[in-house]
Amino acid sequence: MQATGTRLEGAGEVNRWHKYHRVLMRHSQEKSTCVTERRIRKLLEKRELRVRILKTMPDGNQKREDYQWDVIFDGNPRLLEKGVDFTCTPRGFKASAYSAAARRGITIKAIILEDGVAIERQA
Fold first, then answer.
1. What is the pLDDT of residues 89-122, one digit of tens each?
2. Over 43-93, what HEC string results?
3. DSSP 8-state assignment for residue 115
4. CA distances from residue 50 to 38, 40, 55 in whole angstroms, order as listed
5. Could you tell me if 98 and 88 are in contact, meaning their C-beta atoms sit under 8 angstroms apart?
6. Residue 68, number of CB atoms within 10 A of its CB
7. Which of 114, 84, 79, 115 is nearest to 97 (CA)?
8. Is-contact 37 24, C-beta < 8 A?
9. Strand, helix or coil at 113?
10. Phi and psi dihedrals of 106, rounded to 5?
11. Residue 103: C-alpha distances to residues 15, 49, 72, 87 (Å)
12. What is the C-alpha to C-alpha distance for residues 84 and 64, in angstroms, rounded to an integer?
């Protein structure tokens, strides 16, 4: 490129290269997307899609709980024994109890003992 006055010689070649480069990049991105879409279509064609119609939309916040927290948090001090009332570590159960209490908006006190975890709801 040479500067002649205010115009650059060879600037058109540089612009053409950039344009060609952008086209190549766009094409390669579209091609990879098409390949992915083709793979997905093939997988979907192989599987028979079994879709059920629901009467109502379920609540997305429903989670199956492993313990009866409402009974445990009834206000009476309780001793939950490892292997009988829970199978995880006492430390893990204590953490689960605090999380369940926080979801319900209540405070508890939990103490790890030799034979389990003692839990009491705080006023």
1. 999 999 999 999 999 999 999 999 998 999 999 9
2. HHHHCCCCCCCCCCCCCCCCCCCCCCHHHHCCCCCEEEEECCCECCCHHHH
3. T
4. 21, 16, 16
5. no
6. 10
7. 79
8. no
9. strand
10. -120, 165
11. 60, 37, 14, 22
12. 20
Q: Where are the domains of the chain?
A: 2-46, 69-121
- Name the residue with tokens 């319900």: 104
The Cα 123–Cα 119 span in angstroms is 13
pTM of the model: 0.50
Tokens of 92: 């893990």
Quickly tell me which residue has 């344009």 as its tokens. 19
Measured in whole angstroms, how far is the alpha carbon of residue 56 from the centre of its chain?
24
pLDDT digits (tens, 9 = 90+) for 17-62: 455 545 555 555 555 555 566 766 666 666 655 667 788 887 776 6
